[in-house]
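Researcher: Batch entry, complex prediction.
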Amino acid sequence: MKVLVPVKRVVDFNVKVRVKSDGTGVELANVKMSMNPFDEIAVEEALRLKEAGKATEVVVVSIGPAQASETIRTGLAMGADRGILVKAEGNVEPLAVAKILKAVADAEKPGLIILGKQAIDDDSNQTGQMLAALLGWSQATFASKLEVEGADFKVTREVDGGLQTLKLKGPAIVTTDLRLNEPRYASLPNIMKAKKKPIDDKSAADYGVDLTPHLEVLKTSEPPGRKGGVKVKDVAELVSKLKTEAGVL
Amino acid sequence: MTTLLIAEHDNTLIKDATNKTLTAAAALGADVHVLVAGENAKGAADAAAKLAGVKKVLLADNAAYAHDLAEPLAALIVSLAPNYDAFVAPATSRFKNVMPRVAALLDVMQVSEIIKVVSPDTFERPIYAGNAIQTVKSKDAKKVITVRTSTFAAAGEGGSAPVEDAAAAADPGLSSFLGEEVAKSDRPELTSAKIIVSGGRAMQSRENFAKYIEPLADKLGAGVGASRAAVDAGYAPNDWQVGQTGKVVAPELYVAIGISGAIQHLAGMKDSKVIVAINKDEDAPIFQVADYGLVADLYQAVPELTDALGKLGK
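Model: Structure tokens for the complex:
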């Protein structure tokens, strides 16, 4: 079984993003970029399936600017076999990403596609579900455990207040939650090896997908500021303030 | 113009997330119908019919909708699509799962987790875990929207809408339910809790969470959270994690204990109405967002606080 893992290049999760003063977006110049953390978990899970003999090949695909090839290299250094870069400039919405990924899946015919549950930049949490819809495949989002059962899958999902276990008919879409695994760090020899692994260069036009956004971003603004309040001297004062001033007790 | 609100419920009752989503749905300016999909869900449908402002309730009562499977539920919503211009649901795990599937089947871009309705086609939504707010205008003829319920007031009762049966759509039969494990906690879920008590790395152990954080939480009827540092150190289970990559919460009161206030934690809780921080490091960044800061040793201050609340009759 081939496993396809889409990965996204995003602002590193340790960076505090700044909104541009003209309201046109957030500052991306000279900001550290990394693989979306949930996508790292997706790559790790695919690699574990391969190491367990359940998967034969792990292919990472990224849609974005030329620099997204670095994100693919990160996946290759972790252990993926090859990459596909679909070049697309500007803001590509989840629906367009899902359409491109559908075309990639039609060509690659994977038995499983593992995606991060959401990207930490636009926080949309849509691409996996949309891809499942377009392919007409089963889906299990927010996975904390994944088992292969022949061509099918048994997936435990994190839902509000607990866990749910589903059986999915393969081929299937799984999106990762934090508890699924802890991604490995790439070793130096593997980083060197990754430089020789193949990356296919494609463009959105190769797949005939229209990238025109459906959502027009009118502006991007700072969230309402939050000022630090007061320091209280002891527990008694804290309780008294919470009771009388804040009214939350 | 009619809006379809897809209800969050437990078959017997409507959940609070539905009341809050109704406020957002009503702000679109059109009539609101409510879809209750479940099994033996007449109780929930009757409860939805009493919500103020609801014009009609559709009840899809079928075993296919018993376990929130995305494929049949999406097929049902899409089968109703010709009659509606907007589909609105709370951003709970059930609808985060199903609504993008609906959107793709309708070839529209979902607007995720809106925090404000600016006009019927324009919305505010947080990006970068709330570190920026985007105002977006949807150019799609049909809108698919999920609502971050913590930012909308709950609609009350006062309606008496008719309940009609909705025909089940064909089940694609792609997935099946094997089982569930509902957390056996009497504490409220983090995403809907009115009060949250969270511990950080300074708790030093799982035992200290049980000894200091949990009694305070139980005294307040609060949910229990943790920072990523505490979760990574094994002091707290993963599903307690509040932060950019964990749960984003906005309770009335958030009590941060022994939490320094890393960016990724602040991203998950800074929309709380009132924030209390207890930390012995007076320079900890958490104090920059806290309404009330107490510089103290948590091992003394927390039991003292628990006791003081006990005396208040909590």
